[in-house]
Amino acid sequence: MTPAQRLEQTWQRVQALDEGIPSPCVSVCTMDAETGWCDGCLRSLPEIAHWSVLSDAEKKALWPVLVERAKMCPG
Predict the structure, then answer these.
(1) Among 27, 47, 30, 51, residue whose Cα is nearest residue 39
(2) What are the mean pLDDT values of the chain's consecutive 10-residue runs (75 residues total)?
(3) What are phi and psi of 40, to 5 degrees?
């Protein structure tokens, strides 16, 4: 399964949630120098750093952004 497929699959489950929005982290914590995104979850460092203080609505709003980023990445 590609990262894009994995994120899309998880996003399908997240859409049904109103609270307890899961982190997209997959424990592949290396940053891509070109994009500035984590190779595992495709979040930027500020997005990673602020995840714990975001509301569930803000977390949920970030998920489709990550899915779109995954579509732009090779592999």
Answers:
(1) 30
(2) 85 94 93 94 96 97 94 76
(3) -90, -50
